[in-house]
Amino acid sequence: MYLLGSRVYVKCTRCHVALCLKYAQRCQSSAAHLEQDDFLKGAPHRKHPGVINLKTVRLPEQLQVAAQSVLKRADVKSLSEKAHKLSNFLWSRKRATETSQLREKAILLEKKFLEQERDIHADGIDLKLEAQIRKRVLSELRRTTYHRTPLRYDEDLGLVYMAARLAGGYAAVLRALNEIKKRDPVFVPYSLLDFGSGLGTGTWASHTLWGDSLKEYVSVDSSGDMNTLAEQLLSGGNEEDIPVIKQVYFRQFLPVSPKVQFDLVIAAFSLSELAALDERVNVIFTLWRKTNSYLVLVENGTKDGHQILMEARDTILKREEEVQHDLRRPSVFAPCTHELPCPKLIKQVPCNFSQFYYSLPLLKSQERQQEKFSYLIISRSDEEKHQKSEHWDMARLISQVRRRPRHVQCQLCCANGELKQLAVTARCHGKDMYRCARSSDWGDLLPMFHAEDDDTKNDKMQ
Asked: Dmax over Cα atoms in the chain, in whole Å?
């Protein structure tokens, strides 16, 4: 038996036919499935349906010009230095410690100090010593507990935030929304709700992808100064000019009625601004009630950012609301290919992704930078839309693809909720699968083919 291209030639006696066919099917079954299910859908390998990533992202020209105009007019001193410090601060920022966690920690510390004092004072511990122990516990809690600094986004901080995060935030949101555009081309949103809208990156990214269909943009941010800056950016840096994107309505509070829904709901880098878990849970429930099709959450690609998104995922999938206004069940659209516990969260490793972008040119030059972010997209379930092939499931590439001679090393998060290291070769996975893997990158999707009972299949062929 020898292989030529994708064909199998058998040159042996009749008694060895079944063995040769079994060997050939083991090495090329994936290739056969790829052709049978038409995964490529006629597209070239470099543009197969699982490719989600974007090339290096640039800000829309009108947005970039407006931002430069606003910053130039404001003339903020040491803007580049302040922007760099703010970026580092936001990246290293953590969630506030919950009251229940503090209480547990205090009990453990008190128990530890009491045991230490009992070893020293065999005659017992009096009230005075107990008071000293409580002071030691409070002192230790102050020293070891993370103290979260709340940010007040006034005009000055908003300008620094514009220089630091406008381009990177836009790139991350655009990359997340592009997955919906690519995988669900039938989806045509009419209305958008952007919670924690800030400078309006969610509005701009949505307009880039669905500008022809979107007729209503509701931007909600508690900071009036940030809303003012966002309006200036829409008007080319001048509030008196005609806005580039029309029908954008700014609010400082979410719409009250639970029956008002939006086709697309976005919360980018907003949940991390809410210090308490209860507050985040309430906001998540509110946003989900207002979601008609897709809820898109984006956070920094840190351990805390990923954990916040997993809290949101569990909140929506597992907790029942007292009153349900929409009976359609939630379904995880991306990046997870399953609804099982996150394997990376179990390992205490953030699940994040990367998008290259060109920064805002503060010093008359643009730098190519990398935005690391985590995201979560949950949809209202549509059984017809989310049917799966009986032969393969999609798996997510969760790290850089290593292209080596004659094989590609991939790390995948599979539909069974497990992480898998896979070396894709043309011989064992087929040329189509190999070329698709070689053309893919971190964050893209690859098909994982189901194993078949080769013995049963061979018996039928005989």
From this structure: 95
Amino acid at 439: S
* Each residue's pLDDT tens digit, 85-121: 999 999 988 877 767 767 777 777 777 777 776 666 6
DSSP tag of 391: S
Predicted confidence at residue 140, as pLDDT, reads: 74
Distance CA 114, CA 357 (A): 55
Residue among 231, 305, 310, 293 nearest 268 (CA): 305
Is residue 337 within 8 Å of residue 415, measured between CB atoms?
A: yes
Q: Give 110: exposed, middle or buried? Use CB within 10 Å, 0-12, 13-18, 19+.
A: middle
Rounded Cα–Cα distance for residues 13 and 87 (Å): 70
42 pLDDT higher than 90: no
Least confident of 19-23, 155-159, 326-330, 405-409: 19-23
Q: Are 355 and 171 in contact (CB under 8 A)?
A: yes
| pLDDT computed for residue 136 by the predictor | 78
Q: Are 216 and 247 in contact, with CB atoms under 8 Å apart?
A: yes
Q: Are residues 415 and 336 in contact, defined by beta-carbon separation less than 8 angstroms?
A: no
Q: By the 8 A CB rule, do 262 and 290 touch?
A: yes
Element (H, E) at 420: strand 419-424
Q: What is the mean pLDDT of the chain?
A: 82
User: Rounded to whole angstroms, how far apart are CA atoms 460 and 191?
Assistant: 54
Closest-CA residue to 411 (of 338, 353, 332): 353
Tokens of 28: 């090329």
Pair of tokens at residue 366:
């643009």
Least trusted range by pLDDT, from 76-80, 85-89, 262-266: 76-80
Residue type, 356: F
Rounded CA-CA distance 31/368 in Å is: 38
pLDDT score of 149: 78
Q: Which of 333, 321, 259, 250 is nearest to 284 (CA)?
A: 321
Alpha-carbon gap, residue 217 to 421, rounded angstroms: 42
Print the SS3 string covering 327-386. Answer: CCCEEEEECCCCCCCCHHHHCCCCCCEEEEEECCCCCCCCCEEEEEEEEEEEEECCCCCC
Q: What is the DSSP letter of 411?
A: E
Helices (H) and strands (E) in the chain, counts: 14, 15
Query: In sequence order, which ranges of 93-216 are alpha helices (DSSP H)?
Result: 99-120, 127-144, 155-183, 201-210
Q: Structure tokens of 401?
A: 């693809």
